TrEMBL record, chain A:
Family stated for the protein in its record: Belongs to the YciI family.
The YCII-related domain, residue ranges: 1-115
Official protein name in the record: YCII-related domain-containing protein
Organism: Solirubrobacter pauli
Length: 117, 407
């Protein structure tokens, strides 16, 4: 099964991070990526620009409406994702718990929908 | 359909024994709803035949076989199974064949273990785990589960449906977890069973829930005979259940352990609890349930507070929670006097919203003749509990103190 691990965190922490903090986070993700890659679990993943760069799109009655900002204004914002290949939820959660932000923010795990045929 | 006592007996027996069939078919279909559907079909057959022809020798096996046959009928006649028909038929044919009831770990037994782990998965909310466990393994109806937890039936039905959808969609497998996940997953199962027990322990007491929790814990111990914590949980339940009748008086008022009529304790349950505790310690890994059961054994033997306080020290070591600290303080008070207990309570924070914290403090202050402080603490406890039984007890203490202050 494929799972998407959505990484949420408090962006103000990132804004106030020192060079050393950023380097440490980068290093932690490198370690995770290597371990998950070696295990054949990691299919992909990216970091996102901060939520102030977000634009929300809705089309209603044929008219496109754009909103400046993310879908939901919450303390913790989506900041990145990993796409994982795992046998079941337990295995996906084992890996998700090793994503660095699991210690400081929140990681949401969702199965990728599979279509028959 | 006939009615009367035979039907009531058939109904109860069927639902008690149906967990096996639900578990086996859930594995085959990979879907709890389909399994329950087939077992429900078998239930209708049983209600017709059992009252007429008498009960089968082995009801569990009868239900598995009948539910399997009904499931076969369904997949042959319903279009939704077209894609998986061959594989499902082949799988279903192996169900209920060549079973030896004497073997301790048959695939049948494994099915129930798989199902327990599935419906108690930590990714499900605790209340959903409880509801699913009682429905799938305890054979309770949604209405019965709703009544037991004072929830409206539609809300409970929705809770169960949502939990099943999560199992189906989230990638939770009908499997016993890998060794790496086992501690976490087992803890989730044990917590669920204990929640069921506590819901029955009250007050008010609902003996059928306590009985159901004990039955499921027995099953778990039979399936995992080397898990010390499963043994500890079963022992803890038996020891607590042994005091069930003595815990409330004729008016439904709570009776403290020290004031309980020990002749009303269930000796057989205590003896079994003691044997299990000994077996658990022999396994050598001592956890929270085994320690609590050991404390229960000490109470059953006459409450040696020196030993109980030592056991609470061990418990505090493995599980340093505020509630454990509170019980440890009570044991210290019994061993060394109320002043020592009060000193032990001074370190406890974040129990301000817990009525027993205030009631315990009030009791120690009362014994130290600090009556004004005791009255204030009892008032705080009274404001925090809805249980009429406990409120009655606290009000009695408040009256007693006001008499002493006037006298």
């Amino acid at each position: 099964m494929k799972f998407l691990a959505l990484i949420y965190g408090d962006e103000s922490q990132w804004a106030n991070a020192t060079e050393a903090d950023m380097a440490a986070t980068f290093e932690a993700h490198t370690v995770f990526g290597e371990a998950a890659g070696k295990a054949g679990v990691l299919l992909g993943g990216e970091a996102l620009e901060l939520s102030h760069t977000a634009t929300t799109v809705r089309v209603r009655d044929g008219e496109r409406m754009l909103t400046d900002g993310p879908f939901a204004e919450t303390k913790e914002q989506l900041g990145g994702y990993y796409l994982l290949e795992a046998k079941d939820l337990d295995e996906a959660l084992t890996w998700a718990a090793q994503i660095p932000e699991a210690q400081t923010g929140t990681v949401e795990v969702r199965p990728i929908m599979e279509f028959e045929g | 359909m006939t009615s009367g006592p035979q039907v009531a007996v058939a109904d109860r027996l069927f639902r008690r024994e149906s967990g096996q069939a639900v578990a086996t078919l859930a594995r085959v279909f990979g879907d709890l709803d389909r399994a329950e559907e087939a077992v429900q079909d078998a239930f209708l057959v049983a209600l017709e035949r059992w009252p007429r022809d008498g009960l089968p020798d082995n009801p569990a096996a009868w239900i598995v076989t009948t539910a399997r046959n009904r499931a076969l009928d369904r997949i042959r006649s319903e279009r939704r199974w077209a894609g998986r028909r061959m594989a499902l038929e082949a799988e279903l044919r192996t169900v209920g064949e060549d079973r030896e009831p004497e073997t301790s770990v048959s695939p049948i037994v494994d099915d129930r273990l798989r199902l327990i782990f599935t419906v108690c998965h930590p990714a499900l909310a605790p209340e959903a785990r409880v509801a699913l466990t009682l429905r799938a393994l305890g054979g309770l109806t949604t209405a019965e589960v709703a009544r037991a937890f004072l929830v409206a039936e539609p809300a409970m039905a929705q809770r169960i449906t949502r939990a099943k959808r999560k199992i189906a969609g989230a990638g939770i497998r009908y499997e016993v977890p890998r060794d790496a996940d086992l501690p976490d997953r087992l803890r989730s199962v044990l917590t669920t069973l204990y929640l069921i027990f506590n819901a029955g322990y009250g007050p008010p007491i609902r003996a059928e829930l306590c009985g159901e929790a004990i039955r499921l814990a027995r099953l778990l111990v039979a399936l995992m005979p080397d898990e010390g914590e499963a043994i500890g949980l079963l022992a803890l339940m038996l020891l607590q259940d042994s005091r069930r009748e003595a815990r409330v008086d004729a008016d439904g008022a709570l009776v403290l352990l020290a004031d309980q009529d020990r002749s009303r304790w269930d000796r057989a349950e205590i003896a079994e609890g003691e044997r299990l505790v000994a077996r658990g310690w022999a396994l050598g890994r001592v956890g929270v349930y085994l320690l609590q059961a050991s404390i229960g054994v000490e109470h059953a033997r006459g409450s040696d507070w020196t030993r109980i306080a030592w056991l609470y020290d061990q418990l505090w070591h493995v599980s340093p929670t505020p509630v454990v600290a509170l019980n440890r303080a009570v044991a210290i008070a019994e061993r060394d006097g109320p002043a020592a207990g009060l000193a032990a309570m001074a370190d406890i924070h974040d129990l301000d919203g817990y009525h027993l914290f205030h009631a315990t403090r009030a009791d120690l202050l009362r014994r130290l003749d600090r009556l004004d402080e005791a009255a204030a603490a009892y008032a705080a406890a009274l404001a925090l509990t809805d249980s009429e039984v406990e409120r009655g007890f606290i009000r009695g203490r408040i009256e007693e103190i006001s008499c002493r202050r006037q006298g």
